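Re: that backbone. Tokens:
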């Protein structure tokens, strides 16, 4: 979010849309790859909707073409999009991967979560105090 805010303050909206669209298509492709891997490694899992594998493989072929074309035609925009994605790596390691955090770090993360939930109007009951209930 911080990188997006900086880009919005410094750059133009068209460039920001290019960054975000590259990131979205990259995430769509990774999702389809995950679907194919799960269908191959865990074929017995319950799936409410099951499609022929030809559809995601065809989508993946077109996705790869568009992604390679984007990387070729606008490498700087794609590189900045990848950098925007990589800004989430430290957040992942601090928030999810690091299991034995000190209590002060856990309290800080919980207070930031509550603050963000209130800011975005998605406050859940466990965030508030007992008096609010």
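Recovered sequence:
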């Amino acid at each position: 979010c911080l990188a997006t805010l900086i880009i919005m303050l410094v750059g133009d909206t068209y460039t920001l849309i290019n960054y975000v669209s590259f990131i979205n298509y990259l995430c769509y492709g990774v999702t389809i790859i995950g679907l194919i891997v799960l269908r191959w490694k865990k074929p017995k899992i319950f799936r409410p909707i099951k499609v022929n594998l030809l559809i995601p493989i065809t989508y993946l072929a077109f996705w790869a073409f568009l992604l390679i074309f984007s990387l070729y035609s606008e490498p700087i925009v794609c590189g900045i999009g990848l950098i925007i994605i990589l800004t989430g790596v430290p957040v992942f390691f601090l928030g999810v991967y690091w299991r034995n955090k000190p209590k002060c770090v856990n309290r800080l993360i919980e207070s930031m979560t509550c603050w963000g939930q209130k800011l975005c109007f998605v406050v859940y009951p466990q965030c508030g105090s007992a008096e609010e209930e």
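The chain has one domain: 1-120. Residues 1-120 form one domain.
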